[in-house]
Design a protein that fits this description.
Length: 987
């Protein structure tokens, strides 16, 4: 439409006139320049130019079409660049700017002049940003980490925060903190004192630390309110503003002029060779010819100049052996051919404080706190399960971390990429770890998992844990010697106890699936079971086949219906199941006998979670998901999606021990709360009552936090913004960012009421981390949750990926496979309410949780309709709104916002929604032994496994799972490694 009659005296004009456009064109936006140049952006990404515009003919004559950016611009960002134009603006001298329709980048039309108004081509620009308190949240671009001028191709919409050249610059910089912790002289060695200033804090919480609870916003009472304006769940508090890469939405250039002879420096390339030029066929052919001309020489018979099979690395640090105090020490790491030893000496090197073989190490983790670089060495089989070492600098810590990682890799022969059936996990610090299931191959024998335990010189009574499900086909062989003065002995297959929780304590009721009790004085063998602390009816038929002073072999074979017991290779009896045999967790033996060996044969895997060897993979993620064909995706703290590319190593391992690694970036927020109280004289002030919370605090008000005392975690982190008022707080804020309440603590709201006497305001400051890892960025769509499931067991089977955008919208990723792990495109799936978590099981089993805490199951999924056709709502457990869900062949499990765990019962193909929720309680023993553990944080359901993480950072494995007992019977726990997320969907 054209508005006629517009003048300075009549700015509203006279009337609208219709301007025809070419057929098949739909105009999305139009812009007019002062010289009469008219450009229009079409919805399909093309652009139209109006020619013939003069003073006499303001409407012009005809439209001329011009195409979008050329194909060669796609080489740097294939997933983002396209020929789509969303917005166009023309300067005072007819130069044209545009916004990309897909990548939201700024383009400049080159070659536009009076003789050629259509120009030559589109050029992508990097618009420099200025971040200040007055800046919008969208301007918090991750590009600020690298201050040096780079190519506009590398600066615009970067795949990661850093490039290879920038790593060295970052490593040379000091902690970018407003204030530093005091440095003292300790025993003649310089170390940063471990948090002598308790006010220094970080939003990242490390192992055993009480600082930085800000990273756990679930402690905020406002997050769990029942009001509709509460957030979906604490870990993804702001779902709508996850895109921090400044996606441009509008450009207005009418007030400026561009001198083509004096373009700004950010218009000009810095001589960087584009990826397109590097991938030209002629260049690749020349490189191949040069390689073929080089003569290869064999170096096998040439002796090594330096023998690296044995070496010793010595350094200084501070050691924590008793869990509270760090003392000076000397570290000595010795490697001899295929094994090594770590020796910890006191500060003078005269006394050995601790010494152990390196094969006792199961995991090496970073557990740093602000100003205190630390490593946690996990040795679960020693009397000290975790040894924490503090170093004087980040570089020294990373040096020792590299040495520990290298020797563990050599000792366990863990080279190359992990297998496709591995278990992945991430810590609260964003570190990525993987346990390789290849380690289980060593115990396979005739398609059965076999474990032999040497029990010689073991004193009785003895309890032997069974780290497997005693499913049908399991055989236990126990051999030993009977003493001459024997009266009776017993072999018990114990089940996890039943806990009766009381208001202030709990009672433990024992369970025994099989009590096998030969009694020599009565010449009988008693069989029985104990259920909830009560013995059942005894079975006593049959004489005692054992002889005093003789050796014996007891074989217990587990079938579907009963136990078959053999004595010295002769069948003795059958014993019907009274408790699920899969729930058996321990062999308990007592009496006057001497044991020699216990052999376990079972179709189910035998896995002691505490002995799992965790191997670090470079990168920085918050969530991770995998599937049975080996495709693994991850989500960063800034909601960026990453795809595992099959490499290994990273920044911690160095370039020599890494393969196929890429620059990687992530961001995180430091948050503090400004609290004020009202008084009738001065109004709201920072002077509170003696019983009030700190006027600058964390979200709970119990920890004092100030803006000036925030410190970055390591040299890899840098500030990318100043302190800003947060206007995206759950519950809403007023125009100045304040929330009001009657008193501390209370339910906060945005508008001040007459009875409101306190208020608070949240400030945040964003920091970014620069690292390396074997990950490839997947476009620029910010994600909240992901779930992967292959359609079949074939190696290159199609994989269905369900995901949630940061706004809670469900999506399906198409054409994903092992050969194409990134897939092709997203397809949106409609939902009535924003979703908070999503999980897909075998083919047609998709579940999700919504903002109101209810669950949804997707119906109508078919081979030709992966998206299904509608959602079915399912009520959550009473008083426990759900925040996360996981589904697979073994069942549907969910975690509530209160940290409770539930399993859905009676799910079948004809009844996909199931019948009810069954609560899975955490054993009181876990709560009492695992530090800071009060409830569940995350659950991951595999084909036959269920694993979970607690809010205290412990990984739990559910035992006793079977078709008859889908809820399982008990938990085994791994090392307490500050774990946040785990995926066992590939295992």
């Amino acid at each position: 439409m054209f508005r006629s009659g517009v003048t300075t005296k009549s700015p509203e004009g006279a009337k609208w006139l219709c301007v025809t456009i070419p057929g098949g064109c739909e105009v999305g936006q139009i812009s007019v320049g002062p010289t009469g140049l008219v450009w229009a952006a079409l919805l399909d990404g093309r652009a139209l130019i109006r020619v013939g515009v003069t003073r006499e003919s303001l409407m012009g004559d005809i439209w001329v079409e011009t195409r979008g950016p050329a194909d060669n611009l796609r080489t740097m960002q294939i997933s983002a660049f396209g020929q789509m134009v969303q917005n166009i603006s023309v300067t005072g001298n007819d130069q044209v700017f545009a916004i990309g329709g897909e990548d939201r980048a700024i383009y400049f039309r080159t070659g536009v002049h009076s003789g050629d108004l259509t120009g030559k081509k589109w050029k992508c620009l990097h618009a420099p940003l200025q971040v200040s308190r007055a800046s919008s949240n969208a301007s918090l671009n991750r590009d600020k980490l690298n201050n040096s001028t780079r190519s506009t191709h590398s600066l615009n919409r970067p795949h990661s925060l850093c490039d290879t050249s920038g790593i060295g610059d970052i490593g040379d910089q000091s902690h970018s903190a407003p204030t530093s912790l005091p440095v003292g002289e300790i025993g003649g060695k310089h170390f940063e004192t471990p948090l002598k200033n308790p006010r220094a804090w970080s939003p990242v919480r490390s192992v055993g630390s009480i600082v930085g609870t800000e990273v756990h916003p679930e402690s905020d009472e406002s997050l769990w309110s029942d009001r509709q304006d509460s957030c979906i769940f604490a870990e993804d508090e702001e779902l709508g503003w996850g895109e921090y890469e400044a996606p441009w939405s509008w450009v207005a250039a009418g007030a400026c002029t561009i001198e083509l002879n004096q373009l700004p420096n950010w218009f000009v390339e810095q001589g960087t060779i584009t990826q397109t030029e590097l991938d030209q066929p002629w260049r690749l052919q020349i490189l191949e010819e040069l390689k073929s001309r080089l003569q290869s020489q064999s170096y096998k018979n040439i002796p090594l100049a330096v023998d690296t099979t044995s070496w010793v690395h010595v350094g200084e640090g501070r050691i924590n052996l008793n869990g509270s105090v760090y003392v000076d020490c000397v570290l000595q790491l010795e490697w001899v051919h295929t094994n090594g030893t770590l020796t910890i000496l006191n500060s003078d090197g005269a006394t050995t404080m601790q010494q152990f073989s390196l094969n006792e190490i199961t995991c090496v983790q970073c557990c740093s706190e602000p100003g205190s670089p630390r490593l946690a060495i996990h040795t679960p089989n020693l009397n000290i399960p975790v040894i924490r070492i503090q170093f004087s600098s980040d570089s020294q810590m990373e040096e020792w971390q590299t040495h520990f990682t290298t020797v563990c890799r050599e000792m366990y022969h863990l080279t190359g990429a992990p297998s496709k059936n591995s278990v992945w996990a991430v810590t609260a610090l964003g570190d990525i770890f993987v346990w390789d299931s290849k380690q289980l191959i060593n115990i396979l024998e005739n398609q059965l998992y076999v474990q032999e335990l040497d029990l010689t010189r073991k004193l009785l009574p003895i309890k032997i844990p069974l780290y497997t499900n005693c499913i049908p086909g399991t055989v236990l062989l126990l051999s030993g010697y009977i003493h001459d003065d024997i009266d009776r002995f017993a072999i018990n297959l114990n089940v996890y106890p039943t806990f009766k929780v009381k208001p202030k304590n709990f009672s433990e009721l024992e369970n025994c699936a099989l009590h096998f009790n030969p009694r020599f004085d009565e010449n009988v063998v008693v069989r029985n079971s104990m259920i909830d602390g009560k013995w059942g009816e005894e079975e006593r038929y049959g004489e005692n086949p054992f002889t005093a002073g003789k050796e014996f072999v007891v074989q217990i074979e587990i079938t579907i219906d009963d136990y078959i017991i053999y004595i010295n290779d002769n069948k003795f009896c059958n014993y019907r199941h009274r408790l699920p045999a899969s729930s058996c967790c321990m062999v308990d033996v007592w009496g006057k006998i001497t044991l020699s060996k216990l052999k376990i044969q079972t179709p189910s895997i035998i896995l002691n979670p505490k002995e799992m060897l965790w191997r670090q993979i470079g990168g920085h993620l918050r969530r991770i998901e995998s599937c049975a064909v080996g495709v693994t995706w991850g989500i960063g703290f800034d909601h960026t999606c990453w795809v595992y590319n099959g490499g290994w190593g990273g920044t911690y391992a160095g370039t020599l021990n890494s393969s196929n690694i890429n620059p990687m970036a992530d961001t995180q927020d430091y948050r503090v709360y400004e609290n004020q109280r009202w008084n009738p004289v001065t109004g709201y002030t920072s002077a509170g009552l003696p019983t009030d919370r700190y006027m600058w605090s964390d979200v709970t008000g119990k920890q004092k936090r100030t803006k000036d005392q925030a410190k970055l975690l390591s040299v890899h982190w840098q500030w990318i913004s100043d302190w800003l008022v947060d206007f995206h707080v759950p519950g809403g804020v007023d125009k100045e960012g304040w929330q009001y309440a009657v008193d501390f603590p209370a339910s906060y709201h945005a508008n001040k009421h007459f009875t409101d006497y306190v208020r608070r305001r949240r400030w945040f400051r964003r920091c970014a981390v620069s690292t390396m890892g074997p990950w490839t960025e997947l476009g620029h769509t910010k994600l909240l949750d992901i779930s992967l499931i292959p359609l079949s067991d074939e190696e290159d089977s199609q994989i269905i990926v369900w995901a949630l955008a940061t706004g809670g919208q469900a999506m399906v990723r198409l054409d994903v496979s092992a050969s194409n792990p990134s897939g092709a495109k997203w397809e949106h799936v409609n939902s009535d309410k924003p979703l908070s978590s999503i999980s897909c099981g075998p083919f047609n089993n998709v579940w999700a949780t919504a903002a109101n805490g209810s669950a949804y199951v997707r119906l109508g999924i078919k081979l030709d309709l992966f998206q299904g056709h509608k959602w079915m709502s399912i009520e959550p457990p009473p008083g426990n709104p759900l925040k996360e869900i996981s589904v697979n062949e073994i069942g549907v499990w969910a975690v509530s916002r209160k940290g409770n765990l539930y399993v859905r019962k009676d799910i079948s193909s004809g009844w996909p929604e199931g019948s009810c929720w069954q609560s899975i309680h955490m054993d009181p023993l876990i709560i009492s032994t695992a530090q800071n553990t009060t409830g569940f944080k995350h659950v991951s359901v595999g084909a036959k496994e269920v694993w979970a993480t607690t809010d205290g950072g412990v990984i739990l494995r559910r035992e006793g799972l079977s078709k008859e007992n889908a809820a399982g019977s008990g938990w085994n726990w791994t090392i307490a490694g500050n774990w946040q997320h785990i995926t066992t969907r590939a295992f």
